[in-house]
Amino acid sequence: MRLYQKIVIGILGILAAVVIGFTIYGMRAFDDINDVIDNISQAANRKTKKRDVAVSIEDRDPFSILLLGIDTGALGRTDQGRSDSMMVVTVNPEKKESTIVSLDRDILADMLDGVTFDKLNHAYAYGGVELAMDAVEKLLDIPIDHYVTINMQGMRDLIDAVGGIEVNNKIDFTLEKVHVPAGKITLDGKTGLAYARMRYDDPEGDIGRQRRQREVVTKIVQKVLSLDGVSNYQNILKAVEKNSKTDLTWNDMLDIATNYYPAFTTINQHQLEGNGQMVNGVYYQILGITELLNAQNILKEQLELPTSKTLEIDSQFQYSYNGYIGNQFYDDSVDGVDHTSVADPEDEPYYETSENIEIEETTDFAY
């Protein structure tokens, strides 16, 4: 397989994998690929509020993409689902590096309806990919330019399509009658899905699970790049077609392969996590001001946007009734300096006063 074909596969494998890849293999199968692109293409009915001019992949602009792993499609789940795995990727060809920031699913986040704060992964359930993109954009204070989703069945199918992946499993566990032994093992789709989903047997909980999900992403991409023939491409195409959606076009993908390859020589990974707290009887991750500000600035630097010295908080939310600054964050500063600033009320006209804000009580959809 030619180098540029592998670049297409590798880049799409990284971008599309929230928990594994969006992979296109084999330029000989151009008609098949076009059919797949037609079937997975789904424009997002929204525009970023963080850019005056849309990003141009053709012109090699640094861009961002939200990767969503949806907790449906397997195990009999056919509903809308929630974005159980969320990653933001920034790609900068001039800096020759990309950055992946994993977002904890339980982060307390603004649902942008003027009254509701809920777990970040619930945004997808409430308003589909559009609200998920808007909620993450609001949280991280960066433009979210594109998205890719893949569901649980897609993860399972893709692992099988590349012939399995090898991992060094640290925890012997059984999840829903699927046993995954400790040690160096080869995972098929069934055990690989369990490996990426398990969290209750992991002392690190969801953080440990997200680390394993990133490992699965990497292993899938490595397997795809190592393929020298086209024997697997049909299975990969089927896995992608049945289980993925994206607003990236085929031309976007070819431009990424042609113009952005240097950005994938270095991939930096970060985890955005907060302080686990019970709020109104529901578990949330409450983000620290400094932690979030650092993550925002890392992504802004990659997108070549101005960084911030303070975390902007809506004026209505600056006084907390639940013990957290802005009802959403806590002060994790070590220098005793206030790292928040209050936004102009006219910039956020749809919110009422803080006394009217509710925190949605929900039952955690955990597995």
Automatic annotation (TrEMBL):
<comment type="similarity">
    <text>Belongs to the LytR/CpsA/Psr (LCP) family.</text>
</comment>
<dbReference type="Pfam" id="PF03816">
    <property type="entry name" value="LytR_cpsA_psr"/>
</dbReference>
<protein>
    <recommendedName>
        <fullName>Cell envelope-related transcriptional attenuator domain-containing protein</fullName>
    </recommendedName>
</protein>
<feature type="domain" description="Cell envelope-related transcriptional attenuator">
    <location>
        <begin position="82"/>
        <end position="225"/>
    </location>
</feature>
<dbReference type="InterPro" id="IPR050922">
    <property type="entry name" value="LytR/CpsA/Psr_CW_biosynth"/>
</dbReference>
<keyword id="KW-0812">Transmembrane</keyword>
<dbReference type="InterPro" id="IPR004474">
    <property type="entry name" value="LytR_CpsA_psr"/>
</dbReference>
<keyword id="KW-0472">Membrane</keyword>
<keyword id="KW-1133">Transmembrane helix</keyword>
<feature type="transmembrane region" description="Helical">
    <location>
        <begin position="7"/>
        <end position="27"/>
    </location>
</feature>
